[in-house]
Design goal:
166 residues, mainly beta, Elongation Factor Tu (Ef-tu), domain 3, SH3 type barrels, 2 domains, seven-stranded antiparallel sheet, six-stranded mixed sheet, 2 helices, 13 strands
């Protein structure tokens, strides 16, 4: 596994109050687990930032970042993606994957037809879904043993039981 790869954990979705706090939408499970990782890499510039404090706030999270002392400074951070270095994350057990490990893998049907490449994943609430971009877009539920038959990270491949016409 590459040590310079980043893993997206969420994004700054709004300002919170008038003292520079921001609301964070977390993709970690549970959502507050995003607070276990420091430093964060913010936005396209990958600016390394250690947050000052963070807490669960209602259904979301509120975080105070350095150099964010008022609502206007916090507003400049809205929309910034939050990532960390892959090597900051715990190792996975067999059959468990980080989304970033699956993105970019080529997807093949059991008949050997190439559907395309995993562009991203979506959380639908019921299960994660692979968004595969090829000649057309395919949305394949990431349910191992039912639709996902094999994942080969080293080989850069996922085998799926999926009708290419669907």
């Amino acid at each position: 596994m590459s040590t310079d790869k980043q893993v997206a954990l969420g994004y700054i979705c709004a300002v919170h109050g008038i003292k520079g706090w921001v609301k964070v939408h977390s993709w970690t499970r549970p959502p507050e687990a995003i607070l276990d990782y420091q430093p964060w890499l913010l936005g396209d510039q990958q600016q390394s930032v250690k947050f000052i404090t963070g807490r669960k706030q209602g259904k979301g999270l509120a975080v105070l970042l350095p150099d964010s002392n008022d609502r206007e400074q916090a507003r400049l951070l809205v929309g910034q993606k939050i990532s960390v270095q892959r090597d900051q994350m715990p190792e996975t057990v067999p059959g468990e994957y980080y989304w970033s490990d699956l993105e970019g893998l080529e997807v093949h049907t059991l008949n050997g037809e190439v559907l395309g490449v995993v562009e991203e994943l979506m959380d639908t609430g019921a299960n994660d879904v692979l968004v595969i971009r090829g000649q057309r877009q395919h949305l394949v539920p990431f349910i191992q043993g039912q639709f996902i038959m094999a994942v080969d990270l080293e080989g850069g491949r996922i085998d799926v039981d999926w009708d290419p016409e669907f």
